[in-house]
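Sorry to interrupt, but I need a hand with the structure work. Could you write out one complete protein record for me, on any chain you like? Just paste the record in under my message, thanks.

. . .
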Amino acid sequence: LRMSSLVHTPARIPVAEGIGIFVGIVAWDVLTVGHTELIKALLIAAAGSLVWYGVRYWQSARLRKRQETQSS
């Protein structure tokens, strides 16, 4: 059994990106409509964060598989 010298970091939940999506949607609503729909912005930001987390997790899993195949 061979140990890899590369440390694998788990995928993190993208909190900063979710906040950015939320602020962007709220700002867009204020500029275009004149009022905010916070629930809509929150749902879109949460969905965007989950998608972004899924992408990071998928990339992390691919990298881990590649490292495992190269070390064997």
Summary: The chain has a mean pLDDT of 87. The two ends are 8 Å apart (CA to CA). The longest helix spans residues 38-71. The chain has two helices and no strands.
